[in-house]
Write a structure and sequence with these properties.
heterodimer; A: about 350 residues; mainly alpha; MetI-like fold; B: about 350 residues; alpha+beta; Rossmann fold; OB fold (Dihydrolipoamide Acetyltransferase, E2P); 2 domains; six-stranded mixed β-sheet; five-stranded antiparallel β-sheet; 8 helices; elongated
Amino acid sequence: MANIDALNATGAATASVAPRLSDGPRGPKPKSALSPRNIMLYGTLLIVSIYYLLPLYVMIVTSLKDMAEIRMGNVFSPPVDVTFQPWVKAWAEACTGVNCDGLSRGFWNSVRILIPSVLLSMTIALISGYTLSKWKFKGSEVFFTILLVGAFIPYQVMLYPIVIGLREVGGFMTDIYQGTCGLFTAAEGACRGRVQLFGSLSGLVIVHTIFGLPINVLLFRNYFASIPDELFKAARVDGAGFWGILIRIILPMSLPIIVVSGIIQVTGIWNDFLFGVVYTRAESYPMTVQLNNIVNSVQGIKEYNVNMAATLLTGLVPLVVYFFSGKLFVRGIAAGAVKG
Amino acid sequence: MTNNSVEIRDLDLHFGAVKVLQQLNLDIHEGEFLVLLGSSGCGKSTLLNCIAGLLEITDGQIWIKGENVTWAEPSQRGIGMVFQSYALYPQMTVRGNLSFGLRNARVPKDEIERRVSRAAEVLQIGPLLDRKPAALSGGQRQRVAIGRALVRDVDVFLFDEPLSNLDAKLRADLRVELKRLHNQLENTMIYVTHDQVEAMTLADRIAIMKGGKIMQLGTPDEIYNRPQNLYVADFIGSPSMNFIQGKVNGMTFTAGDLSMPLDGYQFSGPQTDGQTATIGIRPEHVITGELVANAPMRTTVNVDIVEPMGSDTLVWADLAGKPFRIRMDGQATVSHGDSLEIGLDLARSSLFDTQSELRL
């Protein structure tokens, strides 16, 4: 039975199509792949890609040549003798000031700055954004506005006040530490230690955390505002509290925005130069500052290959981050951007 | 000891200068199905949120099961709530959704298992227990949302427009299921809706709200047949009541040159002669066809517009210079320009004081 029905149906369908087919061709004219529109489109894309990729290419080939080959002046030609010596030198031997252990010192400094700064700023921003969107209190909107204004104040204005702030807070904490230290330990000399914020990595971590807050709180708050209030109310009726709702309901839904915030923070803090040079000392300079010192050193000959290798090494971390999270990044930006 | 399940005493809720709820008093009996009905912005959902403890009230008290819960956390009030958007936790399975509240309350595992399977059986969602909410249809989601309240063994169920997101057919099905569930569980249920069909069919009692106040609290029959004021009279019934303004003299209502006998109308108090009044007549109470001969009062109207709706026909006519709606049989054959003889039984109508808008 079913077969006959199916046959009938097919027959009917063919019958209805037949007159239209006999009329001749229908529908829009098929376009050739080499239409003017396509040539324009892909041509533009090609030119733009070359424009952006050419410097990268020049850097890579230069970093693989030795100085003799570079002096011949063929910037675009691939290396005749591939050598990794410039990379080794950039990483482990290049001198900045009195230190001659290359960029590796700066790399580890940057890692030591990056990890606590990212974790701290994101945790605080996530909790603040959650509070400002779902646990509104009297004055929470004012609080949020003040935070937003913070995002628009130029960093340069804050530089010197923060120097003083770090020095004073450090001094205050030293006073407390030395004043109460006898309570915890009786060891000889234990009380002479100082809390050093200005000029230390911990000071820089605090600065990065504070400056990361406005934009990240905004991101998290807007993302959480797009989660329906009813979900939150249901969880409250089900007996979940502030932390229970955050950890068991909100966090599992927040992966896209956590990725966005993570990328912004990782690349922002890794690429930071200004705070690094102002708030740390020579031995704890982050990678970017050290790169500058290697590239801009005025003594001796300019080692272009080492400079290129050093620059590529420094840019590797943000590059890897973008490479692996590009898709999530776009999704998160789209999710967090619309609602306010 | 009263047999009230929920008592609301002098409830005030202000958002800044806006008074959302004012001096609201409401007693809800044990096992009662109470519907809060009103148009958007009347404060019905707000009242429900206050009962649930999701909004901090400005003044007054809320008692549930003889306990003052005015300042208690939502989870401590013995309430379960079902939301319009279902509000299921998207990353949890149906089982996870149902057991979330119990896990928060640190109920033992085998007890959770027992209650979840019982709720799944009552709501017929057993085969769905390991699915995520995204893989469920609207009706199934709403059942899970009800189940989430069910497993917690609460005294009072709160429904916030639970059927509004469903299509018409499913809504009618779930309405019947809700009624069955109420008969089966015998819990107190408070149900917010703007749909008067839902209200009339489900409720033991209806509270009609407007501007943060309860306009009338009564059984569906009282609300429909004896509305206490013009607002309720106009709000309930579709198509809505016909209103004609005029005067009451003794047992006669006069509007222009039209005079109607009020024989059989039960006044709620003594009347003064010549009082300005508004009479409300439901379109379905207008007598047409062969029964007109027996009606207490007869008149003839001109048909303006006819709207056939299948089961019945809505006729727009003209009475005392005002549009007058008449609900007729679906098979009625009238058309524009006809003159139609109708009968009115004013014992079934409602009279209101035009100034105070209260029932006479």
